[in-house]
Fold:
Amino acid sequence: MHLIHVYGKKYERGSNWSEPEVLELLQIWSDVPVQTELVTCLRNQHVFNRIASTLRQKGINRTGDQCREKIKKLKLEYKQKTLRSARYYELMERAQSNRSAATSGSTLPLWGGTVTNQVTGMQGSEAPGHPPRTGEILEIKTEVMSSDDEAVGPPEMLYEFGPVDEDEEASAAEHKHAGPNTEENTEMDGEQGNTHVICSPSDCSDQNMTGSSGAGVSPATAPIVMRDGGSHGDQEGGSGSFHQRKRRRVGRGGDGVLSNALAGYLSWQQTAEERFLALEEDRMRQEARAEERREQQEERRAKQEREHEFRLMSMLTKVLSSSRGTEEQSASTSRETLGVPSTSQTLFPYMLSSSAKAVPSMPLGDQMAQYSPYLSRRGNSMRLHQGILQEGFNQYHANKHDENSNPHGIINLGTSENKLCFDLLQKRLMRPDMLQIEPAFLQYPDWKGHSFLREEVAKFLSHYCRSPKPLKPKNVVVMNGCGSLFSALAATLCDPEDAILIPSPFYGVITEDVGLYSSVKLHHVPLYSQPTGSDVRPFQLTVEKLENSLKEAKKEGLNIKALILLNPHNPLGEVYSSEEMISFLEFAKMHKLHVIVDEIYMLSVFNETDTFHSVLSLDGLPDPQRTHIMWGVSKDFAMAGMRVGMVYSENRDLVQALDQLGCFHGVPGPTQYQMAQLLRDRDWLNSEFLPENRRRLREAHSFMTEELKKQDIPFLHRSAGFFIWADLSKYLREKTFAEELSLWRCFLKHKVLLSCGQAFSCVSPGWFRIIFTDQLHKLKLGMQRIKNALEELQSSSVLEKQRTTSDEQDDSRGTARREDTKTIDECKDKTLKTSSVQTKLDTVHIKTEPVSLADENFPVINGQSDIRSKSLDSLIGTLRQQIHTSDWLEKYKPELAAGQDPTQLDVFTDLLDKARK
Structure:
């Protein structure tokens, strides 16, 4: 244990702090920045915490509280000047007096720096950074004094210095003072020996006992004080003059404390005021920016309201114009009577051509006015467009039938999915060879598809399509489903507003596939349920019909770029012969049209007497550079959820273009591996899956056809696909698509989903597609619900009630419509007062339809909005109510608005001119 030598007296040091630790503590504590922060802070615990942190960096593990207590004890010892004297008197005095000189050449380590200062007069074990070696004796100059001199320091330890705060009992803070009194240094002999000149102690106040220390004066300028309290030239005064000087120093030091406190307070107040002003400026700037944003939002809101009101007036004029046009065309042909144009033709022009007017797309009629300002025109058309197939599928997903949890849910006989072979697929997909992951599967692939998958696709199509020569893998492109392939082919083969020929009826989602992204139209080749001319079967496609439709398209100014053929056909189930396909391909070659052949049902022909002939089986294609064949696993492999489709084309330019789009329609690597494993497993396909799948398809088809025969429902008897094309037109009160949609709603009311003919652009109302590829108990329940719906429609009470109330409804609705027309005339008269604008409108007379069972409050969108239906009544009523409740007519009268915006009067004039035409 280290011992401290005190002029011949040894005693043990404290058990907690070693001598090197005390030296390090005093070096850090005595630095000027630390002392300044201790003086200016009322709460200075964080300063001692940082001192402790610096000590820990030097290997001394102390807390801030321990540092505070140690400094307090050292300062008490330093103040007392008793017989025991201060243990570190000389060290603390030198650290205090040399603080300014040491700081000028030092960097405090408390904030990450290093100590470079040297304390003058400290040598050996007292030098900073050089702790005493183990076993050394640390000598500190102290002196044992008599009790009579307790109040006076030893003569060798006392200097007289200027006005410094020495009132330890009354003062609340310690401060620095300049201007020390200078006296001559006198050396005198006394009874107790020679005097020794050392640094005089600095002042210490009670307030800073645990936090800060005052600054002493330099030993070079301090006069020598004799042991008896006198000085040179004042020896007789002795002790009395010493106490007088002490009292004078106390008085002068009090003024310095007050001045420094006041200066510190004023500095703090100035800093606080500057900070407050800066915060106020920031707040005012933020409020100004917020006010600007509010004004901009208000301007946008006002602009949107005006645009919305203009759209309402535009819709009103269009409705009136279309109603007058309907009256003028009431004597047109039966085909035009059956096919009534929809307002979706104005919202979705890329979806339709003139030949498609009979069966338009299905818009969200109730949301037509909800134009989103956040979307483009194309984005709004995508958002508002929804076909009947999508609407029915959404309702099914919202209320699925389940034997246990939801027995009254919807039975889905409208979505073409094969649900008969799950057990076979589950067993095969769970084999070990299907569960493999390689690094390449988790990396970016060739966007046309991994090479191993394209090789297997080429081998698979060569085998099952009976190609005369092996197909080349480089001509294969794989994407996530045939819908993506249709979209990509339309984008690469056609320009926006170009058109593609397609026989109707056809799978309705193709309209969205080619139109939503690429704005490509479909020009329909209508096929009729009754054979005409040289036809030998219903819905027969011939080259003559293709020629006629192509001529009509050219008359309409359409640029036909391609022809789509479905073989086997969806929804007809038709399988075209090789001769028919060759004739279609020759027609396309003659007119330089691309041919997209969809053969996705090629392995789902379940009647052995019918043979499917793929285009790839032909010895030579008429135009191989313009012939492209599609196939996918969703139908033939009963994997609608595994989105994998492929196209084979010998056109290298097309393959390269599709490769550029592949990154948007890629198939995951593990899925590609699984598909390759299935395609190469010929034994499982030929001996287990395909035969069993065809057998189950045949049994389900047989059950469904027998049920239809029992209910006396006509249908097309075909042996391919998952569906039956049935004729329910006898259950329609009128041969219109509005009645067909009402029947579709009636089926939904009875919790069974079918697909109506207008969803497939069929030109004859009343045809429905019924899916039979589901479990037998669901087929039975679905057919029972269909039977219940048809029986309800046929019930004499309901039909008689509809007939007897029809005339009364005609009269009442005619009266209501005349009132609506009168109200509209009054609004127009009030709005348009200029002499150049005619406001007289003809009375609109529209024949009403009687209420049917399908007029229920279903969330179903009326896509076939017949002018004779009550949709026009509700639209006019809604517009009339909005006109009455809005002050738009008062604010934007033509003669008033023209002064603000001259274009408004022109807009009104143009709208009325169009309405009168």
User: Anything to note?
Assistant: The chain has a mean pLDDT of 73.
